[in-house]
Amino acid sequence: MATEHTIDMIRDSKRTMLETEDIGVSLLQDLHQQRGRLIHAHDIFITWMITSERAEGSLGPCLPEGVVAS
């Protein structure tokens, strides 16, 4: 019957919607964690740069070869 088919389609659509929402939530949580790790790594790098600058007197020795401090 058409009504049963329609109900089944609605149920399938709802299931797909909920699965998609779960995937989206999981993805956003992963991205949030990655952002936190990147911010932490950036903070460590900046701290290292400041410490190295104070120890060396300039940024020159801290920069990769070929990069010139401005």
UniProtKB/TrEMBL annotation:
Pfam families: V-SNARE_C (PF12352). This is Uncharacterized protein. It comes from Oryza glaberrima (African rice).
